[in-house]
Amino acid sequence: MSVHSCVFCKIIQGELPSSIVHENEHVIAFLDINPINPGHVLIVPKQHYGSLKEVPTETAMQLFKVVLDVEKAVWVADGVRCEGTNLLQNNGKSAWQDVFHVHFHVIPRYKGDNFKIKIEAGKPSREELDTMASHIRDSI
Ligand code: AMP
Ligand code: ZN
User: What pTM did the predictor assign?
Assistant: First the structure.
């Protein structure tokens, strides 16, 4: 995806409308156009990076600071029903990423809302867990 056809770059350039909740030199936060619940916010670096592994650590810190500020805000903002939150951050098509400009979702949650994820978790043995842990440890 080129920067020129990226929907979030267009929002950042002011070429597409957005409902901004916070903005600084490096980061913008705006409402998701198709919210899972009212008050669903996207936090996006102004520089185009496709997914999280491309983001420099310093930018990630700037991004996450705004994630924390927004997460605190949705608990208390007028008109947002917030009894809990999910932070969602998708990387790659298989992980539901649709917009290939890295972003965090802050999603206000309440009991009985309509957000459902079906999970069929595995039950690996301790040996399998230890082997996997060593593979990942070796890759850090
Ligand atoms: P993801 O699946 O993590 O890539 O999520 C992309 C999100 O961007 C979805 O929740 C979309 O509803 C949202 N989105 C797409 N286009 C726009 C837009 N123009 N303004 C605000 N949110 C958008
Ligand atoms: Zn972009």
Answer: 0.96
